[in-house]
Amino acid sequence: MAEISFGGLATGLPTEDLVSSLMAIERQPLNRLEAKKETETKRLEAYAQFNTLLGGLRDAVANLNLTSDVRTTSVRLSSNETISASSNGAATGSYDIAVAQLAQVQKTVTAGYSSRTAAVFGSGTFAINNVAVQIDSTNNSLDGLMGAINSVSAQTGVTASIINDGSTSDNFHLVLTGKDAATSFSLTYNLQDGQGAPIAIDATHVRAAQQAVVYVDGIEVVANTNTLTGVIAGVTLNLNQTSAIVTPGDGQTPPVYATTNLTVEADTGALKEKVGEFVTAYNKIMEWIVAGYEVGGRNQQTGDAADGDEAKDQPLSDLLRGDATINKIKRSLQSLLSTGVDSGSSLQILAEIGITTRQDGTLNLNASKLDDTLATKFDDVVGLLAGQGSLDGVMKRFNTYLRDVTSTTSGMYADKRARYTEAVKRFDQQIDQKEALMGKIEERIRNQFTSLELLVSNLNAQSNYLTQQMDIIANMMTKGRK
Question: How is 87-155 classified by DSSP, letter by letter?
Fold first, then answer.
């Protein structure tokens, strides 16, 4: 049953209001603890937001960290008939290429058999390049021989399959294929039927194994495949057909083949886009540190609309104004920008390609200067950004720093989150203790008011009794005089 209170009946005091006011005073230390907890929560949200921006910069830097990502080049061919090609960070240059011979694997095909499962091979041995398999009643069919050959393919480099040519009889053919252009093979066998008569296998070498032969600027290149990588660093060559012979060979000198010109050109548009993404990501960080910024009509820190009273809400970055950790990261980023690098190129700082720092810490990208530098010193720009060999470029240094500062285990936010967890744990303990104390304090105050009410009630009762007695005495004295 709920407690019934008659506060103020004797004294006429607003007991509930007085208790509420006194408890409001008593709760002030508790309110301060809860306010501190809320502030710490908001600060952690601010750190998380800042960490997200750092992650955006890290992603932009990752696109400029590797030489293959920065040296964005494309391939132009004088003809697409004999070859096709693509570039993956290849250096600019020009090459004359002729295809003398395409790579092909050896193919050997048997005569046709009317059944895949009939026992047609008797017993004995079947060998590929002296690697023999035993043939008996368990595998002397076309399917069985195929399985036996494939069981030793790791040793021979030859695999077997069966083709149905669609004829009404003798339509199944065993096809043996070498694994690559360098694999040649021969077949030997000693098979007999049940009467000891030899069994012959009619097999035809329909295609001999041969390696691809390509001339790159007159240098002979031999390969086991028609897709060549590593011949020209960063370029993948696909051989489509042999080149036309310009001058036949005479036995003493090799033939001369028509060449296709391959030119690796700088793809400056892709690199400019990546540089622009870096500048944008960097500026978001600096703008966040300096003040809230607006994109698309909404404040990116608070998520509030840019117009109206809601836009006046405090941006999260304000909670970290002057924060030592934020300032340290800011100084580190600015130092990475301004410190020169020995990348093996003629360029040492980003300002030389048009990236300069404004007074507020944000970056300005001079597009014209970047275009001019890319047009005249493309490889030097690559070296400045991504480095060369063991030499680090600007973005490699950025990448190393940002990976550390955004680490999910030891980075800035990971550290702040751990500290926040400990702080909130302490606040919660103190709040729980004070909440328990508030109940006791309120009970004490209410008991004091109850005691006051009882005291006043008793005094009122005594006062009423005395008044009654005085009235009786007064009445008696008045009757006596009469």
Answer: ESSPPSEEEEEEEEE--B--EEEEPPBS-SSS--S-EEEEEETTEEEEE-TTT-SHHHHHHHHHHTHHH
